[in-house]
Amino acid sequence: MRLFLLCLGLSLLATAPVASAQSMTDQVDFSTDAYTKSEMSRADIEAGIKALKTGEKLNLSGKALNNLDLSNMDLRQVNLQAARLMHANLSHSNLDGVNLDSAWSLKSNWSGANLRGASMFQTQLQGADLDGADLSGAHIAGDFSKASMKDAILDGANLSPNESNQSMGLMRGTFRNTNLDGASFKGANMHRALIEFSSLQRANFTGANMSAAELGGSNFDGADFNDADIADADFTSATTVGIKNIEAAKNKNRAKGLATSP
Description:
By secondary structure, the protein is mostly loops. Helices cover 9% and strands 8% of the residues. It is built from 3 helices and 6 strands; from the N terminus they run H-H-H-E-E-E-E-E-E. The strands form 3 sheets. A two-stranded parallel ribbon has the order 1-2. The protein has a two-stranded parallel sheet with strand order 3-4. The longest helix has 10 residues, at 2-11. It starts with a helix and ends in a 66-residue tail after the last strand.
């Protein structure tokens, strides 16, 4: 199934296949209609949802929905797999459990959105605004680099790769130069997640599995590591002075590059 999704995502690219599964933006021509225009209007989507029978879903898989204002909508009955939502506004919308696998949504607005339990495999959200969004329990194996995720909730989310199916590259939660200040990762599975050169000041990692996570160059000032498992986590060049409850973290002696003294 994941291999199918990966192939579907690649089929939407405007140019040749890429070398890296999570650096696809360099190979896409974002000036084409596929990434600048919309096949539907907000009214079309509202009408489609209204016409659904019990148990049905509105299939918008692969649809170009760029620049649409879909804010404050209930989209729980919509399939957005591989949809293109570039520069779209989905702020404060309800996407609880929605399939967003392989969707493209760069520089879009998801602030305050409900993304609890959403599937976000190979989802591209670089530069997006997810401030205050709730991604609790979501499966996150996409790219959130340069996004703003201040006070976002990722409690119980799964950011780890499926290591049994990585034939096309390591698909995992990827956060490079991302603002995660005040974000909550309580109980999240962050095994092997990539969070580099990001700001995680005052973030809460209570009970999170951060084993083998790549955290180099990030700022953890004021972050809470109570009961977090940091075995083999790489903190090289990270700002770790001032973090809280590091003594209560699991496997602290196995963490790499961890410096907590002034």
